[in-house]
Amino acid sequence: MKKKLEELTQTHGKTETFRPSTLDQIWGDTGLNKYNTLDEQEYSNTLSEMNKSDLMSHSARMGIVPADSRERMVKRLMTAFRQHVSGFRSSNIPQPKPTRPNKAAMDILAEGR
């Protein structure tokens, strides 16, 4: 039984849900290297388990100037984490479907033939 062309599928081995936006991502960086997670709740739990000195050293390692206030440090770290995660998750904005021009536009385009 011979299959029709429309019934055939082709695979390419790529993940369809992820579009790399940086060269590091193209070379295989998954985003887990910096924070060990991409889950906001898990990272928040990790921060809540740290004491103030651990939080200050973690802030310095992440490139954030440690603050005297614990709440301020946590807020800055969470903001930096969210920015990091947003770079590794593509937006789910649907692409517009191409539409066919109306009859008047087609008539104008046909004049050039």
Short descriptors:
113 residues; mainly alpha; 47% helix; 0% strand
Task: Give a short overview.
With about 110 residues, this protein is mainly alpha-helical. Helix content is about 45%, strand content about 0%.
Describe the structure.
With 113 residues, this protein is mostly helical. The protein has a domain at 30-89. The chain has helices at 23-26, 32-35, 40-49, 52-61, 70-86, 103-110. The protein is built from six helices and no strands. The radius of gyration is 24 Å and the shape is elongated. It starts with 22 loop residues before the first helix and ends with a helix. The model has no long low-confidence stretch (mean pLDDT 81).
Topology:
Layout: H1 23-26, H2 32-35, H3 40-49, H4 52-61, H5 70-86, H6 103-110
Helix pairs in contact: 3-5, 4-5
Total helices: the number is 6
Q: In total, how many beta strands?
A: 0
Describe the biggest sheet? none
pLDDT averaged residue by residue? 81
What distance separates the N and C termini? 44 Å
Report the C-alpha radius of gyration, rounded: 24 Å
Task: Give the % helix.
Answer: 40-55%
Secondary-structure element series: HHHHHH
The rough form would be described as: elongated
Portion in beta strands: under 5%
**Which blocks of ≥5 consecutive residues have pLDDT under 50?**
none
**What class, by secondary structure content?**
mainly alpha
